[in-house]
Amino acid sequence: MDVHRLMRAVENLRAVDRPAATVAAAVRRGLKASKADGALRGSWLGHPLHPLMVTVPIGAWVSAAVLDAGNRNDDAARKLIAIGLTAAPPTILLGLADYGELDKRQRRVGLVHAVTNAAAVGCFAASYQLRRRGRHTAGKLMSTLALTVLSTGGALGGHLSYAQGAGVHRWQAPRSIEDGTVG
């Protein structure tokens, strides 16, 4: 499987242009109305906040998977899933704040990234409910599915950040190799 080809295919997925543009416009309107635009996008820090925040739900969910793999402490794994689910909404909000500033190709990847991660969150929520009802094996299977889907979403997010440069040097002055500020 050529992962690079798959990522480029998502960049070229024109079928999502209309919904992607609609979401971006709604986000821009909402942020302007709330006056929270710069704060949510990390202007005070000098880089986007979303990549920092994703470590909380991902870390909690991966930790739950480690407990599951060792057949250790189902209650602790369930609590870790709950921590990830609690951290997901602010993580999503920060991602949406960045979304309004993306170009067309980045919005395509961003929308598929968001939909994929929303599916993962739904699977983790189902896993949590299954575990609460004492269906630990089914909950573990659902968590495994969720982590697989989340990995796909994470790969798309990495592509958006590193290959497409979303949010890179957003608040810094333009740099160049000639003046010695890059390199």
Helices and strands in order, then pairings?
Blueprint: H1 3-11, H2 17-34, H3 37-41, H4 50-53, H5 55-69, H6 74-99, H7 104-132, H8 136-163
Domain DUF2231: 46-169
Organism: Kibdelosporangium persicum
Protein name: Membrane protein
Q: How big is the Rg? A: 18 Å
List the domain count as a whole number: 1
Mean pLDDT over all positions: 89
- Ends apart, CA distance between termini: 34 Å
**Percentage of residues in helical conformation:** over 70%
Number of helices: 8
Q: What pattern of helices and strands is seen along the backbone?
A: HHHHHHHH
- Number of DSSP E strands: 0
User: Roughly what fraction of the amino acids lie in strands?
Assistant: under 5%
What summary fits the major beta sheet? none
Q: Structural class per helix/strand content?
A: mainly alpha
Based on the structure, what is the oligomeric state of the protein chains?
single chain
Residue windows where pLDDT falls under 50 for at least 5 positions: none
Please characterize this protein's 3D structure:
The longest helix is centred in the middle third of the chain and has 29 residues, at 104-132. Helix content is 73%, strand content 0%. It has one domain. It is globular and about 45 Å long. Helix 5 runs antiparallel to helix 6 (74-99), helix 5 runs antiparallel to helix 8 (136-163) and helix 7 packs antiparallel against helix 8 (136-163). With 183 residues, it is mostly helical. It has 8 helices and no strands.
